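[Automated response] Your request has been received and processed.

Submitted sequence:
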Amino acid sequence: MELVRLKLVTIVAEAVLEHRLVEEIKRLGAKGYTLVDARGEGSRGLRTMDWEGKNIRLETIVSEEVALRILARLQEAYFPHYAVVAFVENVEVVRGDKYV
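Generated structure:
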């Protein structure tokens, strides 16, 4: 079995950004994604009230080039204005052609 090396981009953000972020990553080259509700505590503290909204965890497996485009877009348009965290991991996948 052949494994293909790609990048897993994980974005944790305010749920209100869900639609916008999904459209952004697709526009930048992602062919798919996984999205789940997320909870936790970070530099902005713990969200304890419903009125503060919920968080999402958006994951996509992409080429390094697409990963860099996604991170650059987040840096430009989201990090300064929203509670958004993003990180990239190296992954090896089966059927790599599904992702690039």
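Summary generated for your ticket: The chain has a mean pLDDT of 91. The first strand starts at residue 4 and ends at 14.
If you did not submit this request, please reply to this message.
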